[in-house]
Amino acid sequence: MAHAAAVAKPPAPPGRRRTSATPRGLPYLLIAPAALLMLGFIAYPVLSVFYYSLQEYNPTKPWRNGFAGLDNFVHAFTEDPVFWDSLVFSAQWVVVEVGLQLLLGLALALIVNQTFAGRALGRALVFSPWAVSGVLTSVIWVLLYNSQTGVTRYLADLGVGSYGTSWLSDTSTVFPAAVVAELWRGVPFFAILILADLQSVPKDLYEAAEVDGASRLRQFLHITLPHLRDAIVLSTLLRAVWEFNNVDLLYTLTGGGPAGVTTTLPLHVANTGVDGHDFGYASALTTVAFVILLFCSIAYLRLSKFGGEAR
Known about the structure:
Helices cover 66% and strands 1% of the residues. With 311 residues, it is mostly helical.
């Protein structure tokens, strides 16, 4: 015992702390290569768009290229009628799509959250459209809406409508047709996120509510919805941004037509840049869309009090 006490190390002075053998900056050094790559892939395109938005840049007319200042923005707000029409339709598209997708996704999540025979198969069927790529989804619905071999042909056989009818070529039916196609792809996104959050709701809350005599509706309003608030806010924000930037489905189904009634602002950007080769003006339109999305996202998060305590 005396020998052990003699060789024991004296305690460290109270003013000194034990230092780790790992340098404090090592974690940052390890993630630096990946962070720099991500910064390059994200920052460079964004800064390029801001730069070209102030330029007159058209590869087919190089003699006109040069600094344009704010001319592209002035042209968008004062001289381009397609800009305002596409902006209004983008807002209409986002509100209708996100609202319907949220309601249907919530309903599906509540259904597949219940215990019933074949629930695993039901969940797989509900989530399967989300696994299909956007291009393949567009091709599927183009075939379904084909006037010769699609749904309208079979409806005409049943006496509903006439042969040769194309819902995508009629200004009165093209919007509902495009909405249904996008619903098929977007509803599973809400169903997945809401179902994941539903499974984390404590069962004790529902049992206590049943003991107190609360109906299913009151349980849904006072237990389920408050618990899902943050998930709903986040999913609607993400989906709104994605729907605003939707190009592939509308481009494949309608190309912005007929008569430009389904042209969103990002689709107008694509037509201006890809088809018209006016990359300077397309960059200015992209910058306007970025600012709109930024301010709308900030306002939405503030108004919804995302991350705060549910009342």
